[in-house]
Design brief:
Elements: H1 2-5, E1 7-9, E2 24-26, H2 27-40, H3 66-83, E3 87-98, E4 103-112, E5 117-126
Antiparallel strand pairs: 1-2, 3-4, 4-5
Amino acid sequence: MSDFLGRGWSFPPRFDPRGKTAVMVTGVPDIDESLRILLSTAPGERVMLPDYGCALRRMVFEEASEQTVTEIKGLIRKAVLFYEPRITLNRIDAQRVDALSGRLDILLDYTVRTTNTRHNLVYPFYLHQATHPVRA
């Protein structure tokens, strides 16, 4: 079962201070980190996997409307379907946290296929550029 759930480098990469080895993660933490990487990667960024990623960046600067939230959910659903076979996505919710900064907290509720256990991940997404706050 652990072979299916996987083992990978922690993200961001860290090294064990006692040795010269990379810190590894396994199981659900590995899945959570893989999901964060998937959602943070724009298609075309990975040279050897040009289709890998989620096109969330094209949603930056969009109006925080129901249509935008629905489109974001669709982009995430498609990316998880194609690139995270270890889980079944049960639900995606997006909650507007801060209208001024355009922050959405995206909740992924998923089931790990091999263990049939439910987990969730909250991914913060900003519809506005983070370096310059929006002025009313």
